[in-house]
Sequence to fold (167 residues):
Amino acid sequence: MSLRFTTFRSERLRAAAHIPGAVAAAVLLFTLMASPARAQDADGNVFHDGESLPWGEPSNGTRFLPLYGNYSIGGEVFAFRLEVQPGFEIRPHTHPVTEHMTVLSGTFYVGMGETMDKEAATAYGPGSYIAIAADVPAYMWADEVTVIQVHGVGPFSTNFLEPAPEP
Fold:
């Protein structure tokens, strides 16, 4: 089976990530808009106090936290956090750059391949580190509130292996 790549588009957000009972339009918002890290000074230093992290407002139960850089710019180092709710899932996709993830809390399930096979995936708990090379198909989900930190070198975008089903 050959890979069919479809660039992630806003009209396909609902099918890209699924949160039962809610529209998933903002679950993967981080793939659509560039958001430089808050509290970054002119020298590129960033200091975030863990007690007062500048999380964005929840959108359908998912929160995004830019920490450093701008993931949409080629060659720029970036870091962000994503808090997902139970039922979050993202179907098989790739990224044009290596995706580095650290699980900070909860359990994050990751599987490799062109089809979503939850039996073949692995559960990763707090402290786990995952690196998925550029253009390697993967899928993910969470059954509980989970926070992951994603970092790498841009440009970071999401490409799904097949068109999103119609909502």
User: Anything to note?
Assistant: The chain is about 0% helix and 35% strand. The CA atoms of residues 63 and 83 lie 5 Å apart.
